[in-house]
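Dear colleague,

Following up on yesterday's call, I've attached the two folding results inline so they're easy to grep. Please treat them as preliminary; we haven't cross-checked anything against experimental data yet. The first protein's sequence and C-alpha cells come first.
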Amino acid sequence: MRTITSANSVFMLGASKLFNIPIQMQGYAADDAFSSEDVEFMEKYIGVDGKLSAGFIPYIVMLDFTLAADSASNLIMDAIITTEKAIREKLELNATIVIPGVGFTYAFTKGYLDKGSVIPSSGKTLKPRKFSLAFQDVSPAPLVVS
C-alpha cells in the first residue's frame, strides 16, 4: 500500500573523487528535507496565424535539500566545499533518493554543488543549512521490493 510518508526515505550522495562509496545523508530538516524545482521541458511559441510550435530542450534538474544544524551530514557537505576550494575544481556528484512510500527510486547523475549555506544561521536555536545541487539528469524507477 502506498503512503505519502517521507520519514522512511533514503538519500545517498556520491562524490567519486572524494569518497569511495556514496554516503547516506542523515538529519534532514523536518519541514524541508528535499525537493526539486520545476523545469521547462520545451521551447514553445505561437505564430501570428495561431499555430503552436514546440520542441524538446535539455534542462538542468535542481535538487534542493536541507540539513538540521546538528546533522552529521553537514560534515559531508563541508568536505565537498573545502575540497573544491582547495583544488579549484568542481567535484562531480551523483545521488539516489529512495521513497518507499510512493514506491519509487530517483537516480540523479552528473551533478555539481551549486549553492548552499556555509554555516547555520543563529536565533534562539541554530537554523537548518540549505544546499542546491544541479544535475544533468534524473531517472525515476519503480522500487522493487523483494
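Below is the second protein, in the same order (sequence, then structure):
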Amino acid sequence: MNANRITGICLGLLLAALPAAAQEPIIYPAQGQSNDQTERDKYECYQWAKGQTGFDPMAPPTATQPPPQTDAPTASAGKGLVGGAVAGSLIGGIADGNWGQGAAIGAAAGGLFGAHRKSSQKKQSQQEQDSWEQQQAQIYAQRRHEYNRGYAACLTGRGYTVN
C-alpha cells in the first residue's frame, strides 16, 4: 500500500469524524461548581467513559479492519491486444487462409475487451474502497456516540447539565 493511499484513508477517517466532533456536549455546572472543580470532573468523566467504552476521543481515528486489497488490475488493453491477435490470426488462417487480417481484427477486438475489463476492475476496486471508508466512518460515529453517552451520564451524576 503506498503512502498516498494511507494518507487518503486517514484523511477520510478524520473527515468522517468531523460531524461527531462538532457534536461535543455542552456542560453547565448546575450546582455552582467552580471552574477548577468542573475541569476535574470533566477529566475524571473522560477517563471513566473511555474505560467503559474503550473509545478515546482524544486519539486519532483508526481503522477497525484493514482496507480492501487493491491489487493492480490484471486486465489490460495490451494483453487483450496480443491475445486477440493470436486468436484472430489462428481463426483467420484456419477459416480462409488470411492470417494477417484475422490477426488485425482479433487485435482490435482483444484491445477493446482488455481495456473494458481493466476499467471494470478499477471501478469495482474503487467501489470496494468507498464502501470500506463508509463502514469505518459509521463504526467511528457509533463508538463516539457510545462514549458521549457515558461521558454525559458521568457528568450528570456529578450535578451538571449536559446537552
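For the second protein, one point worth flagging: The chain has a mean pLDDT of 77.

Best wishes,
A.L.
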